[in-house]
C-alpha cells in the first residue's frame, strides 16, 4: 500500500463513506470513547497545557536541528553495531530493505505496525521478491487477511470493520470456526501469529521515537507484537520517517507520555520498548543484525516552509478523533493512508495537490484538531495555508470563485460598493423569494438551498433602521 | 460607556433583528452606541477560502473604519475572532501590524463584553421555555469565550437551559464549506439537529449568525418545531 | 548520508550543524507529578493504578516472599516457569525457586533452548529494576541473563517489585537510564498484560504477549 489509496474521486469516496452506516456508527463511537479518555488523561495531569508547550518545544527544537540529531543517531547506532541507511526516496528505502532481506535469503517476514512502511509501499516490494510479509498488529493483520483492505485510522486501522465481517474473513481465509466474539477472534490471531514469530527470518518495525544520544529506537504498543517481532527473528529492520527523533531519553519519555495519553488515554501503553543495536555479547534473544532505515520521501521539502510544523506530528490521531468531518466520511474518503486533519495537511505535501487538492477544503476550520494536538500543530491554520497555496501558487481555484472573491475584495474594501451591493440585494434575489425565504437559490446559492432554507435579504438593512432611529 | 458596534455583514443584511436587539440591550446596560457607516465585512469569507490578498483589502478597510473606537463590540464570536487574527495576518507588515494589534485589543464579542467589561451577569431578561445552547467553534476554541453566554443565560427568568449533547462538534457551517462540501455539511447539521431534538428544546440559542443560518435553515427545511434565536435576541426579551 | 543531511541543512537555510547544545526547556511539568511523595504514598498510587490496568498487585514482606510467590504460581495454574538468572533471587531468599523441577533458569550458554523454554512456560518471573507509580509500570533492563522473551512468551507474567524501586514516573527512570551510561540492548516498560482494542474498540486482554500480569511488592525492601 502506498500513500495513495486508489478508490475513485474524492466526492465519490465521500458518498460511499456517508452511506456506510456501520462505519459511521463505529467511527462516532470510537471518537466519543477516545476523546473522553484523552480528556480524562489530560485532566488528571492538571497542567496539560504545560505538557503541550513542552512537547511543542521539544519537537520544534529537534526539527530545527534535525541534521545534527540524525547524524548523532547514526553514529550511535553504528557504535552499537547497527547499520544505518539514509533513504532519500521510497525506492531507495525499498531497494535497501530488499537487499538486506535477499542477503539473508529470507522467506518469512513478520512486521509490526508502521505508517512509513505503508507510505513507501514496502510490503509490495518484498512480496515481489518472493517473501511472505505478515502484519502482526491485530488490526493490520485483519486488514491484510482481508485482501489488503486499506487502513482507515492511524491508530485503529480496522475501525471500519465490524466483528461479523472479521469473523467471516477469518472463516474464509484462516479456517476459523468460532464466533464473532472479539476474545475468540483475537485468540485465533494469537495462535496463528505465534507460529509466525517463531519461524520468521526477519522482523520489520516502524519507530515511534529514535533517541539520538543513545542510538536507540522506541516502540509503543499495547499488544506486545513489536517485542516479539524484534526478539525472535535473527535480523531486525526498523524503518523511520526522518523526523521521528528526539535528543535524549528524557525527551523521549515526555513525548511518549503525550502520545499514549493523546492516542488512547492511557498513561502508558502496555509495552514501551527501547531497543539499542542488535543483541549484545551472550544474549540469546534479540536480533543478530540490526538495520535502521531513515526515510525522507518528501519530508525535507516541507522543512523550511510554512508547513514545517506538520513534521512535529507524533501520529497519535487525537486530531482524527475529534474531527467532525472524519466522523461522517471515515478514513477511506481521504484517499490516503493518512486520514483526518493530519491527513488533510500531510497528504497534499507528500503526494501533491493533483491527487489531494480537495482535502484542505474538507474542513470547517472548527479548530478541534488544533485544540487536541498534543504538540500544538496549528492544523486548521495549515489547512488555510493549503487553500492559499492552491489559490495563489497553484492557480487551481475555479474561475467563478476567483471572480466572486475579487468582487468580494472590492466590495468589502469599499464602503460605497458595499452599501450599493447590499441595497440592491433584496431586489436581485426577489424572483427567488417566497415568505422571506429562498428555497431554490440561483448560482452559488443552489448548493446551500439544496440542503437548507436561505433567508432573503431584509428590505430594511440594519444600518437603515439605525439611521432612522437617530443613532450616529 | 462608548461602544462602537461592528454589526457584521450577515446581521446587516439578513438578521436585522439581531442587530436591533444588540443595540437595545447595550443601551439598556448604559452604553452609547456608535456605528461607523463605512463598515463592511471582516474579510473571513475570502480569507478562509485562501484569498488572502482580497481579504487583506477588506481588513485594512475595517482597521481604518474602526480605528477611533474605544470598545468594538460584535454579536458574533467568529467575526470577533477574525479581528483578533488581524495582527497575525499582518505580521511583519510594520504599520499595519501595529494598527491591527490596536484593533484586536479593543474587540469584544457581545457576551464577553457584557460579562467581562460591563461586569453584568443578569441583564433582566425573561423568556419562558426550554433552551439549549450551541457553542460555536471559533468563539469557544479560538476566541476562548466559553462561559459568558452560559452565565448570562442562567439569569434569564423563565428559561431552562439544558446541555446540548456532543456540543463540541461543529454544526457543519464553516463558511464556504457549507456549499463546497454540501453532502458532508448536511450530515453534520443533521447530527446537530438530532442532538437538539434529543433534549426536546424549544429554543436553540447561539452567538454566531453563520451557525444559526445553517442550523436554522436546515430546521426550517425539515419543518422541525424548534425556534432558533441569537443570544442577543434572548437577552433582549423582557 | 552527507547528501541527505546536507539537503536538510540547506532546506533549513544553513550549513550542516556539527554540534548543538540541548536547551534547557522552558517548561518542565513532568517533575511535578507526585513530587515529594514518600515511598508509602508512591506505593498507594501504584496500587490505585494497578486496578486500572488489569493487573493484580500482591503485597508481602521479604520474609514471606517465598510463600507469596508460591501462592501466585498456584493461582495461575503452576509451571512450567521461566526465570532470569538474577542474583536478586538469592538475595531475597528465593534460591528454592531454582531447584523446582518445573522452573527453567535462563542460561545464555544454552542458546535458543531458553526461548523454547519461555515459549512453553506458563509463567515468566523477573524483578522490576525501576517501578513507575503513576502508570503502574515495571522497567526491565534486560541482559544476557535475563532474556527479553521471559516477559513476553509465557501466558502469565509476574514481576517482583522491591518497594525501594518505586519512583513517581517515567521521568525518573529516563534520567537513571541516561546516567547509568551503557544502555542495555533492550529496555522494557511493561504496564500490565498485553491487550488490544482493534476489534470494534472492545478491549481484549492477552493478545500476543501475556494474558495475565501480577505484581508482587516487597513492602520492607
Automatic annotation (TrEMBL), chain A:
Q: Which GO terms describe its biological process?
A: lactate metabolic process
Q: Which species expresses this protein natively?
A: Anoxybacillus pushchinoensis
| Binding-site list for [4Fe-4S] cluster 2 | 323, 366, 369
Name the family: Belongs to the LutB/YkgF family.
Domain LUD positions: 71-295
Q: Which InterPro entries match?
A: 4Fe4S_Fe-S-bd, 4Fe4S_Fe_S_CS, FTHF_cligase-like_sf, Helical_ferredxn, LUD_dom, LutB, LutB/LldF, LutB_C
Instruction: Give the Pfam families listed for this entry.
Output: Fer4_8, LUD_dom, LutB_C
Q: What is this protein called?
A: Lactate utilization protein B
Where does the 4Fe-4S ferredoxin-type domain start and stop, copy by copy?
310-377
| Protein keywords | 4Fe-4S, Electron transport, Iron, Iron-sulfur, Metal-binding, Repeat, Transport
Which NCBIfam families does the record match to this protein? LutB/LldF family L-lactate oxidation iron-sulfur protein
| Location of the Lactate utilization protein B C-terminal domain | 386-470
The lineage is: Bacteria, Bacillati, Bacillota, Bacilli, Bacillales
A GO term for molecular function = metal ion binding
Stated role:
Is involved in L-lactate degradation and allows cells to grow with lactate as the sole carbon source. Has probably a role as an electron transporter during oxidation of L-lactate.
Q: Where does the chain bind [4Fe-4S] cluster 1?
A: 313, 316, 319, 373
For whether the record's keyword set contains Iron, the answer is: yes
TrEMBL record, chain B:
Q: Which Pfam families does this one have?
A: CCG
An example GO CC term for this entry is: cytosol
The record ties this protein, via InterPro entries, to: Cys_rich_dom, LutA
The residues covered by the Cysteine-rich domain are 3-84, 132-215
User: What one GO molecular function would you report for this record?
Assistant: oxidoreductase activity
Q: Name one GO biological process term.
A: lactate metabolic process
Family the UniProt entry places it in: Belongs to the LutA/YkgE family.
Biological role stated in the UniProt entry: Is involved in L-lactate degradation and allows cells to grow with lactate as the sole carbon source.
Q: What is this protein called?
A: Lactate utilization protein A
Q: Which organism is it from?
A: Anoxybacillus pushchinoensis
At the highest ranks, the source species' classification is: Bacteria, Bacillati, Bacillota, Bacilli, Bacillales
Automatic annotation (TrEMBL), chain C:
- Where does the LUD domain lie? 43-218
Any Pfam family hit: LUD_dom
Q: Which domain of life is it from?
A: Bacteria
Q: Cite the InterPro entries for this sequence.
A: FTHF_cligase-like_sf, LUD_dom, LutC, NagB/RpiA_transferase-like
GO terms in the biological process aspect are: lactate metabolic process
Role, per record: Is involved in L-lactate degradation and allows cells to grow with lactate as the sole carbon source.
Family from the record: Belongs to the LutC/YkgG family.
Mind telling me what this protein is named?
Lactate utilization protein C
